[in-house]
Design brief:
Order of helices and strands: HEEEEEEEEEEEEEEEEEEEEEHEEEEEEE
Radius of gyration: 19 Å
Structural class: mainly beta
CATH class: Mainly Beta
Distance between the termini: 47 Å
Strand order of the largest sheet: 1-3-28-27-26
CATH topology: Neuraminidase
Largest sheet: 5 strands, antiparallel
Strand content: 35-45%
Mean pLDDT: 93
CATH superfamily: TolB, C-terminal domain
Number of helices: 2
Number of domains: 1
Shape: globular
């Protein structure tokens, strides 16, 4: 189906769902998918046994980078290969918000994924954007859809294709830079960086490499106390989540493997990808098989399975709705856990 026709069908479908909702319901009822799977009794203190996973929008090539925009009560997310940013709200359903979301040039010959990827909402209403196609980190203003480049190079060389991003409360930014956006990935002739790094972007605009030993650093998130940086390594040969102890300057003081997904990767498609953190420190992490829920020590508690690969997640609404980007669709589930940054 042509891209324009597919998007039109997607928006019509979502609009009809919203229009057919009962006027007595605060939000429309969507198709239920997947299942909730507990590994430990503690899981159901975070995700209820009867939690309903709802498919709220579909028709994408690869959905990614969800971010809840609190001052507008809507979700932004990207379809990275389609180079399109979408907006979803309970009132309006899904719509195209920005196209192109990333690279806006004409030479696509060297790009595998031209769109923007990870998003991170900022307190003032702007959004940090890991622009895979343009190979930079930017600040995006949803109100007027303008963007400002924050970093595009390290030591005079272009980034590979920034993938995911996390912001500390003091404005320090951490991001990952695998080469997934480039055709040929590690073999791309456009690749300038000698490593696939994890970087820190300081408020003064300086960029610092804090990890260069991971093959495919991907999802990134901070613990609620902002003293630990979590990074997912989406290397099928070494699928792990790393935990980095960081100091007030953002320097790494210690590092360790938090958890290993090798056994999951042997049984299901996917790899450690995007992740988010609850207010009490639990990790909700994309993994082979679905969205894995772990405690702060990496102990597995349960899995949210959508029936498809999960790329990323974000808390939204009052902090108790978990949004999941899952291959061709986006889902949501009401949970008991509260997202970091929500509430007192």
């Amino acid at each position: 189906m042509p891209h324009a026709v597919r998007i039109t069908a997607l928006l019509l479908s979502c609009s009809l769902l919203a229009a057919c909702a009962s006027p007595h319901e605060a939000t429309p009822r969507y198709e239920a998918v997947g299942r909730i799977k507990a590994f430990d009794p503690a899981f159901h203190a975070l995700v209820p046994k009867d939690a309903r996973i709802e498919k709220i929008a579909e028709g994408f090539e690869w959905s990614e980078g969800p971010a809840w925009i609190a001052n507008g009560d809507y979700l932004l997310f990207n379809d990275v290969p389609a180079n399109t940013m979408h907006r979803w709200s309970a009132r309006d359903g899904a719509s195209v918000f920005l196209e192109p979301s990333g690279y806006d040039g004409t030479d696509l010959s060297g790009l595998r994924e031209a769109g923007a990827n990870g998003l991170e909402a900022e307190p003032g209403g702007t959004v940090l954007l890991a622009d895979s196609g343009s190979r930079l980190i930017a600040r995006f203003n949803p109100t007027d859809k303008t963007r400002t480049t924050l970093a595009a190079t390290f030591e005079g060389k272009r980034f590979n294709s920034p993938n995911d991003i996390a912001r500390r409360s003091d404005g320090t930014v951490f991001f990952t830079d695998p080469p997934y956006g480039l055709k040929g990935i590690d073999e791309s002739p456009l690749k300038e960086q000698p490593v696939n790094g994890v970087y820190r972007l300081d408020a003064d605009g300086s960029v610092h490499l804090i990890e260069g030993a991971l093959k495919f650093p991907n999802g990134v998130a901070l613990s609620p106390d902002e003293r630990t940086l979590y990074v997912a390594n989406s290397d099928r040969a070494h699928p792990v989540w790393m935990a980095y102890a960081i100091d007030a300057k953002g320097e790494v003081r210690d590092r360790r493997v938090l958890a290993d997904a090798s056994d999951l990767a042997a049984a299901a498609e996917g790899a450690p990808d995007g992740l988010c953190v609850s207010r009490d420190g639990h990790l909700f992490a994309s993994a082979p098989g679905g969205l894995l829920v772990m405690d702060a020590n990496g102990k597995r508690l349960g899995m949210i399975e959508t029936g498809a690969r999960v790329s990323n997640c974000a808390f939204g609404d009052d902090g108790r709705t978990l949004y999941l980007t899952s291959h061709t669709f986006v889902a949501r589930v009401r949970v008991t856990a509260v997202g970091a940054g929500f509430g007192p």
